[in-house]
Design a protein that fits this description.
Layout: H1 2-44, H2 52-60, H3 71-78, H4 83-92, H5 107-110, H6 112-119, H7 124-136, H8 145-162, H9 175-188, H10 195-200, E1 201-204, H11 217-233, H12 238-261, H13 268-281, H14 305-316, H15 324-339, E2 342-343, E3 351-353, H16 357-377, H17 382-394, H18 400-414, H19 419-432, H20 438-452, H21 465-471, H22 473-481, H23 490-505, H24 509-518, H25 534-538, H26 560-573, H27 578-593, H28 601-609, H29 616-632, H30 637-647, H31 656-669, H32 685-698, H33 705-717, H34 723-730, H35 738-748, H36 757-770, H37 775-788, H38 794-810, H39 815-828, H40 834-861, H41 871-885, H42 894-903, H43 940-956, H44 958-974, H45 978-994, H46 996-999, H47 1003-1007, H48 1015-1030, H49 1040-1046, H50 1053-1070, H51 1074-1086, H52 1102-1108, H53 1116-1128, H54 1132-1152, H55 1159-1172, H56 1180-1183, H57 1195-1238, H58 1242-1253, H59 1261-1264, H60 1269-1307, H61 1343-1351, H62 1420-1425, H63 1448-1457
Antiparallel strand pairs: 1-3, 2-3
Length: about 1450
């Protein structure tokens, strides 16, 4: 048994030995075969025929250049395409270490490739030189498919040789040749040099936000032609492209195999080249599926080029290729531009790639790879993650798409940071958000919003209070997002408000709660300082304990911070920049939508008011916000009301696009929701909202009916009212919302198909029988009857007429129904023949006139009629008399007129009741005007209606109008009744339309009501005059313009705003030169100066002069408010011309002696110089900087606008300078001389004007005033004093803010949005007042502040470095990434919104984006300035110091005398 086992084991060993021997013999045969095949390939390639001189030349030039190869040898290599090189590659592959590991090897055989080369008579230098010919010379030979393929295979062979054992001994590695091999994939792939890749790149990214010059059109055309020719010449078939791709994949795989065994530790340049080529290959082709970053996979299993590229980048991070940290730094740096969606060239600045789907996908893959490295390398890669994030922030461009993707990248990478590093980066980000570059501050907001979308981090026990506060979402919302609400840049302000609204739309509850805290009474405060006590932490109220509730800003429990936040948000709605107003509207809408603030009228009215904004985009944004708010709170009555008041007036907007948007919204909400009535209609939210809105139009919003009617007029032309719509509408007649149904029927009955008349008549009968229908519905039913009366038969019409007449005889309906009834009665009486129509009107309306006449005579002639007067009934009869008389003028007699006149007097002329009356046209008119009667004892309301009725009577008779106009004018002067004066203005303006020439002499009496004691009369007069001026029934004659503009300074803000609207949006558009034509005369008129030969020569009464006078120093501010308003609405051409005209017609008159420099003349001259000194007088082309770009403008349009603006500014400046030299300077010099002779105090105003004007010509004072050296010297001296005064004022304002911040620190606790991040040191102190609008001092100044201000004049001026920036963000970080807080006792001379910051530790070893502080030591001056020196009470004050001040001109004259 044992022997059998031994025999079996021996047999098995014999079999294994035989198998191993057989395998070894096969391998030996294969090796000999490979050797023979390799020798045959080398023989075919004729490498032995290479000339030694040619090979030595290639090596001597270190492969930088390659001379031409012998034609015969090149032909032998390229005869069969790339087959020769492919065969050589296959023969060399078994000799490398990358062959199958199961193959038996020996040292002699594994290194025999070099022996084979020697046996074949081919030196290693010759083979490398031949490969270099195809690799290095690829760029110089004719480009095409075959040369590219040969170069790729040659490079693969070279990399294969490098991986073969013995390559180092044979000096195969050559730096230049290796780099050339690495560059081949980018060069040989056709799309990398074709037109497609060029289209993907946008213009070169410019540093510092500078715009590139516009390329010339000719050059663009030439480039396009060259690209087309190149594309035609380099055409590759799909098979060719697939072959080239396979060659590139082979090259990359050989490179990766090489990197696995061939260390680049001593070759940093080659390692950098590998990083670069792998980075470029990451976007070589799209990847199907998800990438797997697993370096344990076999290379042959990886088919995607980007996967191979990331495989190589991971290999390069290993220690075998150098310092691991430096390797990670290089990889992160190369991937930076992939994440930024840029392409970095060799010698040019990075170019932006269009954010297409492929580019974004490549960016996402790079982010995943970075996260993979962070998971693999852990602590080694974390420091470079911080650097990568900082560079992402500092190299971000000011483009919305790129910022959005960049913020998501930062958020994704920050998720890999531990809490301590995360808090440190947030601290750095806070300093980054206060930098002076607008792009930085914008991107900081985007990053904050992206971080808010992530879950909030929980603070670890090892973190301090300051770092724990930085982890919260509250800090991001209140300090980083809302903290930029007052930024100096309008773009940043707008983006901050947009981000605030985006935070509310997030699913994260923490972000919403943090915003609630901003507008709540007791917000939570995160402690940011390291020296906070434990007690403050225990008493801290966090967001988890805050009640999630709606905050009423009108309540008394609202904190100061919440009120300030809301008031500042309201101010942003009125910002000068359009983009800020739009963002503020979006923010307010979000706050209202999510119930952060109360749905109160004062909050909602902001949105409706902005529907009438001057900017088109703001109007549309306001309408959009109202629509979103209505959709979110469709059941809110106040929201519905505000939506109507904002949207309906937009229907008559001057912009057609606004009209279309308003009509579209109204149709969607109202018209499309009219469906067939059913029991479940109220369950439909859209239908319920529709009928609620119509109910409001019938009730609270009746004043909007004319806008609503305009919409239906437009829709009727578009045939919107189909038979189905009418049928659905009629089905709701008996529902609870019937008033809304009749409102729609009243608008559509006139243009709709045949209606169901039976239901309409039933509703009429019901209204006549019960008379319990509302006023509005009654008017709508009467309107519908008037529209359908032509379709009714005679009997029905006769019955309706009788019902209306009986209703009017009783006068039991309101005034609105009386007017609608008379109108319907007239429409029922219309016939084809005009005589029949007039006969009907004379019969029925005449009866009504007689009825009213009888009643009024009964009341007026009855001795006790005034005591037992029914005021409502008298008013109704007066109203009915006026309305009916318009349709039957022939039935109005003298007695009717006298009765109405007698209502305004106490004892009317007696007319016997039974005396027959003749028509008014055949009788003499009344001989006495209203002014001859005694004051009436009737109530004010009756007399006011009597005025309206008398006006309607005058409309029918010109003689009657001519007789009663003096009475009306007299009533305006003497009447003490506001209602009477208001109606008289209305009547006279209506008469002006019909009798224009007759009313012209009474315009001064009408315009005098612009200064009436009652606001309603002033508003009524302003509205009526504007209407007459628009229709050109009234011209700007006499003092009308000056009276009109005085309303700009009306004590009631509502009236002044109405005047601004009328002037700018209604009248100025009709007459653009209106303001400039009257501007100079305004100066003389408002100062009551009448000595000029041209201006202010119209006649006025003494009472009118006194009423409209703005003369005197106490009215100076009011006058200049008018001047500024007029100048703000000037064009640059008008500003330019008015300056010249003022100098010639005003200043020149004082120089020539036409106007005396007496008391009145000096006031006019002083005011004229003050007007010339206004900043509004400066040309906007010179004053305005680079404006905000339109959101729809692309980069080329914005660039063209910028170029045009610069050119325009240059031309305008030259023209203005020329005119100033030729026209102004001679007059100014002569005027100064005359003022000096008379020692006039106006000389000070003249010098002030010159100081303001010469700011633009600061370096050209001597040149411009060469004719008067003394004036030039004085100007230079005054300009220096002016600059010093500005610096002192800035220092004083800084002191004031510092003291206010100290007071606020002592009186109220600090909040996260009001606190600076300070370094952890014992000497740390809080700086209060950050991120807040500086407030004016309240009450008397503290004694300490008064003393500080008193010392400000004796302090040295501020250094230039301290005042370089005066606007922008607030704070900076030190070199340790913390905020540079001034030492205790020092002062901060920057405004609270000034951008100033240090962002250090931002470098990849290249000095990129390093930002250093402008303040480097030397704080002793400020410390000295902040010390307050006090004197002992016993010590006498020193004598005033004698200053040795000498004029530069006097010094010059002294030299001349010597």
């Amino acid at each position: 048994m044992i022997n059998g086992v031994k025999i079996a084991a021996k047999a098995r060993m014999t079999l294994k030995a035989r198998a191993k021997l057989r395998q070894w013999l096969c391998w030996r045969v294969q090796t000999k075969y490979n050797k023979m095949e390799l020798m045959n390939v080398l023989e075919i390639l004729k490498l032995k025929d290479l000339k030694r001189d040619w090979v030595d030349g290639v090596w001597d030039l270190e492969f930088t250049e390659v001379e031409a190869l012998d034609a015969a040898i090149e032909d032998s290599v390229t005869r069969n395409g790339s087959q020769g090189l492919e065969a050589l590659y296959r023969c060399l592959l078994p000799y490398t270490n990358h062959s199958d590991s199961s193959t038996p090897t020996s040292d002699g055989l594994s290194q025999s490739v070099w022996t084979v080369l020697g046996d074949s008579g081919v030196s290693t230098r010759s083979l490398v030189a031949l490969l270099a010919y195809f690799v290095v010379g690829a760029r110089t030979r004719p480009d095409g498919f075959q040369p590219r393929l040969l170069s790729l295979h040659a490079a693969s062979i070279y990399l294969l040789l490098l991986g073969t054992p013995g390559s180092v001994v044979n000096q195969v590695f050559q730096q230049v040749l290796f780099d050339a091999c690495l560059a081949l994939p980018a060069h040989c792939w056709p799309q990398s040099c074709g037109r497609k890749r060029k289209k993907e790149c946008v213009k070169s990214w410019q540093a510092e936000g500078k715009r590139p010059r516009a390329p010339r059109r000719e050059q663009e055309e030439v480039d396009a032609e060259e690209e087309e020719q190149e594309e035609e010449r380099l055409h590759f078939s799909p098979r060719d492209l697939l072959t080239i791709r396979e060659a590139i994949v082979l090259l990359v795989r050989n490179l990766l195999r090489l990197l696995q065994t061939f260390p680049l530790k001593d070759k940093p340049q080659s390692a950098d080249s590998c990083v670069q080529i792998f980075t470029e290959l990451t976007d070589f082709e799209p990847v199907i599926g998800e990438l797997e970053f697993n370096n344990k996979r076999a290379l042959d299993e990886i088919q995607s080029v980007p996967e191979l590229a990331y495989y190589g980048l991971a290999l390069l991070c290993s220690p075998s290729h150098g310092d691991e940290k430096e390797n990670v730094r290089g990889v992160f740096h190369s991937l930076l531009y992939v994440i930024l969606m840029m392409r970095r060239g060799q010698s040019r600045k990075p170019t932006l790639l269009l954010p297409s789907q492929a580019v974004v996908s490549t960016r996402d893959q790079a982010l995943l790879f970075v996260c993979h490295l962070l998971d693999e390398l852990k602590e080694t890669a974390l420091p470079f993650l911080r650097i990568l994030l900082q560079h992402l922030c500092c190299q971000m461009v000011e483009k919305t798409d790129y910022r959005s993707h960049g913020a998501q990248a930062v958020s994704q990478l920050l998720d890999k940071m531990p809490c301590s590093d995360y808090a440190s980066f947030i601290k750095w980000l806070f300093a980054y958000s206060t930098h002076s570059k607008v792009a930085y501050r914008l991107f900081a907001l985007d990053v904050s919003v992206a971080l808010l979308a992530c879950p909030e981090r929980q603070a670890e026990a090892s973190l301090g209070p300051e770092q724990a506060g930085l982890l919260s979402h509250r800090f991001l919302v209140q300090s980083l997002v809302f903290g930029r609400r007052s930024d100096s840049s309008p773009t940043v302000r707008a983006h901050a408000l947009t981000c605030l609204s985006r935070c509310l739309e997030m699913p994260s509850l923490n972000a919403t709660r943090c915003i609630h805290e901003l507008f709540s009474s007791t917000g939570a405060h995160t402690v940011l300082e390291g020296d906070a006590t434990d007690g403050s932490l225990r008493s801290q109220k966090t967001y988890r304990t805050l009640q999630f509730k709606t905050v009423d800003i009108t309540g008394s429990d609202i904190s100061y911070e919440s009120k300030e936040a809301m008031s500042l948000l309201m101010r942003r709605v009125c910002d000068q920049k359009t983009i800020v107003r739009k963002s503020a509207l979006q923010a307010i809408m979000s706050l209202l939508k999510h119930s952060v603030i109360l749905l109160a009228q004062e909050n909602l009215s902001v949105l409706s008011d902005r529907c009438r904004d001057p900017a088109l985009s703001v109007k549309k944004k306001a309408m959009q916000c109202l629509g979103e708010l209505l959709h979110a709170h469709s059941h809110s009555r106040v929201v519905q009301r505000v939506w109507l008041r904002g949207l309906l007036p937009a229907i008559i907007d001057p912009e057609s696009s606004v009209q279309d948007k308003a009509l579209e919204s109204l149709e969607q909400v109202v018209l499309s929701q009219v469906k067939t009535h059913s029991s479940s209609s109220w369950e439909d939210a859209g239908q319920k909202l529709c009928w609620d809105l119509l109910g409001l139009l019938c009730d609270d919003c009746q004043d909007l009916s004319r806008y609503f009617s305009k919409a239906f007029t437009v829709w009727s032309k578009q045939n919107k009212f189909t038979a189905a719509f009418i049928s659905n509408l009629v089905s709701h007649m008996e529902a609870e919302h019937a008033p809304g149904v009749w409102l729609l029927l009243a608008r559509v009955a006139g243009s709709s198909p045949k209606l169901n008349y039976s239901k309409i008549l039933d509703a009429w009968d019901h209204m006549v029988r019960l008379r319990n229908v509302t006023v509005t519905t009654s008017c709508h039913i009467l309107s519908v009857l008037g529209d359908v009366c032509e379709h009714l038969n005679e009997d029905t019409r006769r019955r309706i007429v009788e019902d209306i007449m009986s209703w009017l005889r009783s006068l039991e309906m309101p005034l609105e129904v009386v007017g609608a009834s008379v109108e319907t009665l007239c429409r029922l009486g219309r016939a084809q023949a005009m005589k029949d129509t007039q006969k009907f009107l004379n019969q029925h309306c005449g009866e009504l006139v007689s009825l009213c006449e009888t009643y009024l005579s009964t009341v007026l002639f009855n001795e006790k009629g005034a005591q037992n007067l029914n005021e409502d009934l008298v008013v109704k009869h007066l109203y009915l008399l006026g309305v009916a008389s318009l349709h039957c003028p022939a039935r109005v007699g003298k007695r009717t007129v006298l009765l109405v006149q007698s209502v305004l007097s106490s004892s009317p002329e007696h007319t016997a009741e039974g005396q027959p009356e003749e028509p008014l046209a055949s009788q003499p008119l009344a001989s006495q005007p209203l002014s001859q009667f005694h004051p009436s004892s009737l109530p004010s309301r009756v007399r006011a209606h009597a005025v309206l009725t008398l006006g309607k009577l005058c409309l029918q008779h010109e003689d009657l109008t001519q007789r009663y106009l003096p009475a009306f004018a007299r009533e305006l002067q003497l009447s003490t009744d506001m209602a009477v004066r208001s109606n008289v203005v209305l009547v006279m303006c209506d008469l002006c339309v019909r009798y224009t020439n007759m009313l012209e002499r009474y315009l001064p009496s009408i315009s005098a009501c612009l200064q009436d004691n009652h606001m309603l009369v002033r508003e009524q007069t302003l509205t009526m005059l504007t209407s007459l001026l628009q229709e050109e029934f009234v011209k700007w004659k006499g003092s009308l313009f000056f009276r009109f503009v005085t309303v700009l300074v009306d004590p009631e803000p509502a009236v002044s705003r109405l005047c601004e609207y009328c002037l700018v949006h209604l009248l100025l558009k009709k007459n653009p030169a209106m303001f400039s034509q009257h501007f100079i005369e305004c100066i003389f008129h408002f100062n009551s100066y009448e000595k000029h030969k041209t201006y202010n020569k119209f006649s006025q009464t003494a009472s009118e002069k006194a009423r409209f006078s703005l003369r005197g120093s106490r009215n100076r501010d009011r006058r200049f408010r008018i001047y500024r308003f007029l100048l703000e609405n000037f064009t640059d051409a008008q500003r330019f011309n008015i300056t010249t005209k003022i100098s010639q017609t005003v200043l020149a008159c004082f120089v020539d002696g036409e106007l005396a420099l007496d008391g009145e003349g000096s006031e006019v001259l002083s005011e004229t110089l003050g007007v010339l000194s206004l900043k509004e007088m400066k040309l906007q082309a010179l004053a305005a900087g680079r404006g905000e770009a339109d959101e729809q403008d692309d980069e080329q349009v914005a660039m063209a606008k910028a170029v045009i603006q610069v050119a325009q500014k240059k031309v305008v400046s030259q023209v203005q300078k020329k005119v100033f030299i030729e026209n102004m300077i001679p007059i100014i010099i002569a005027l100064k001389s005359k003022l000096e002779q008379q020692r006039s105090p106006v000389l000070k105003d003249l010098m002030g004007y010159l100081q303001v004007t010469m700011q633009d010509y600061r370096s050209e004072v001597k040149e411009l005033f060469a004719a008067d050296e003394q004036l030039a010297a004085e100007l230079e001296y005054n300009l220096k004093l002016y600059e010093k005064e500005q610096q002192d004022n800035m220092a004083a304002s800084s002191l004031l803010r510092e003291m206010q911040s100290r007071d606020s620190a002592a009186s109220s606790p600090a909040s996260p949005s009001r606190r600076l991040l300070a370094p952890a040191s014992p000497s740390r102190r809080l700086l209060q007042g950050a991120f807040t609008t500086p407030q004016a001092p309240r009450g008397p100044l503290p004694a300490q502040l008064s003393r500080l201000l008193s010392q400000s004049a004796r302090r040295p001026p501020l250094r230039a470095a301290d005042n370089q920036q005066t606007s922008g963000p607030h704070r900076a970080l030190s070199a340790q990434e913390s905020v540079s807080v001034p030492p205790k006792g020092s002062l901060c001379y920057r405004a609270f919104s000034t951008p100033h910051g240090n962002i250090n530790d931002v470098t990849f070893g290249e000095g990129l984006s390093a930002i250093f502080s402008e303040r480097r030591g030397g704080s002793s001056d400020r410390e000295e300035e902040s010390v307050l020196h006090l004197r002992s009470p016993e010590q006498r004050s020193p004598a005033p110091r004698q200053w040795e001040v000498q004029s530069p001109l006097a010094h010059r004259r002294t030299k001349k005398v010597q």
